[in-house]
Amino acid sequence: MYNLEMTLEQIADVVGGEVLGDKNIVIKGVSGIKEAQEGDITFLANQKYYPLVEKTEATAIIVERKIRNCSKPAILTDNPSLAFAKVVNLIAPASRKPQGISNLAFIGEGVKLGKNVAIGPFVILEDDVEIGEDTIIYGGCYIGFGTKIGKKCLLYSHVSIRERITVGNNVIIHSGTVIGSDGFGFAEVEGVQYKIPQIGTVVIEDDVEIGANVTIDRARFDKTVIGRGTKIDNLVQIAHNVIVGKNCLIVAQAGISGSTLIGDNVIIAGQAGLVGHIEVGEGAVIMAKSGVPKSVPKNTRVFGYPAKEEKHAKRVNAIVQRLPEIYQELKELKRKVKEIEVKLT
Hints:
By secondary structure, the protein is of the alpha/beta class.
């Protein structure tokens, strides 16, 4: 898939691993375990795919340290997935990034730009925007007045960050994302919906990555917060006044309603939906397609609609899957009971 020319020993030095087998084997490429060919190095991060070790055509494989009897030359590491990512980074083609300030960008009054900032064509920086050093903004982005973006951030094309938003350092935001749009707030008066002003802000802390076409609404009065180190997948909706803790994972098409509090290290899987004004405790896991109507205790896994504790939800689901058989058994029992009643009378 990619071209590489390193010995197994050299690769092990890069990833901090231990060679099992011939350390002088030359690796010429990297690929997935199913697609790998002779000369490639691949990796195994999930034990359920261990049978593929015997089937793969890869010359070498990166595995966990506890695996000592691999049939192929291997590199033993603490985290095979991370180690493989380091190898891929050695040969990944460099993307073409904007250089300097394009003369097609609009720069408002009072804008402050740090050292080595790069701004592509058709970017709009409204008045009093601040951009930290080494930040890169691709073409077509919009940054509203008074917004502050930290150091070493990367904004891909067509990101919109509205007024008075704060973005920390080392933040990556992918194309089409909108940060700081109005919260969904309306008051009904005599059958007519009146808009409630949304005058708060959004704070994106350091080391956050936000996928494509994500929407994060500004708070009604205070702030919507995305905690440090949190990673958000594509097509996620985060409503006004939501507080997301540190190091959370929020997967595609999840939706979080207003004023919900998410603890640190929470995982919200794909298409999960959370009502507003609840709390999800630290370390909790919301499984895919779950509908969460109430608060979730810390370190709890929930599943289903409405979401219940995982083991209970799976027992309920198992019974639901057997409803046709249970219904037939119930009909038979009713028939037998009726026969007995007739005989008794």
